[in-house]
Amino acid sequence: MTISRKKSHKRGFTLAESVIALGILVVLITGFLAVFGPAATAIRKTLSAEDASRLKAALELEMSTLREGRDQQQYASSMGKAFDWIVRSHERGSTVFVYLYRASIVEIRSDGSLAPFPDVDGVAGKDYLIQPMVRRIDDPLLEEDFEALEGRVFFVKMTQLIFDDTGLKISEEVGKIVDPHAEEDDFSNKADEFPEAVILFEAEFYRLPTRSIDYVEGAFDPVDFTRPSFRRNLGVAR
Prior knowledge:
Strand content: 25-35%
Number of strands: 9
Mean pLDDT: 84
Distance between the termini: 101 Å
Order of helices and strands: HHHHEEEHEEEEEHE
Structural class: alpha+beta
Shape: extended
Largest sheet: 7 strands, antiparallel
Number of domains: 1
C-alpha cells in the first residue's frame, strides 16, 4: 500500500517548466542562426563569385578563339566570330551555353576540345578533367558534352556596350554592333570594318532550369528568361 502511494506521487514537468525549457531552446537556436547564418550566406556568395569568374573567363576565351573545323569554315577571324555570337545571342537558334563537363584526358575531337567522359564512376584527375566549355545550341558537339555535365548549365545573352555623355552604357540596339561613339554606323555584318580594336559588351548569364538536352532542343526559348543570375562586362580584342 505504501509503495503504491509513493508511485502515485511521482512528479513530472509542470507546464511552466516546459514553457521555460522551450524558451531557452528557442534562444539557443536563434543565437546559432545569428552566428552561423551570415557565415553560410558568405560561403554561398563566395562560391557563386568563383562560379561567375570561371564562366566569365570561359566565355571571354571562347569569343577570342577560332576553333579548327567549323569555326574556321564560318568565320574569317575571331573578331568575326565574336560579332556573330553577340549579335545573335538573343535568338533561340543561336543561344550560347556555358558549362562544365567531364573531359577525357586522352581523346581530342576535331575542333581541338577534349572528348566527354560519360562514366560517372571515373576518378577525377586520373580518368578525366573538369573542363569549362562554351558552345552554341547549333553546335553538333553540344549534345555529346551534355552526357558528361558537371554542375549547372548557363546560357548567355550579350549586348554591346557603347559610349554617351555619361560614359559607358548598354546599347538599346539589341542584335546589332555599331560604332561605340557613333551609333548610326552599323557594323553587324562587317566585322573587318569595325573602327575599334576591342568590342565591349555586357553578358547576362541565365541558369538553365534543367540539364536535359531534350529540353534544350525542345521547349527552351531564351525569350522566356528575363532575370539573369549575374551580369559581367567583357571585351574581345582583334
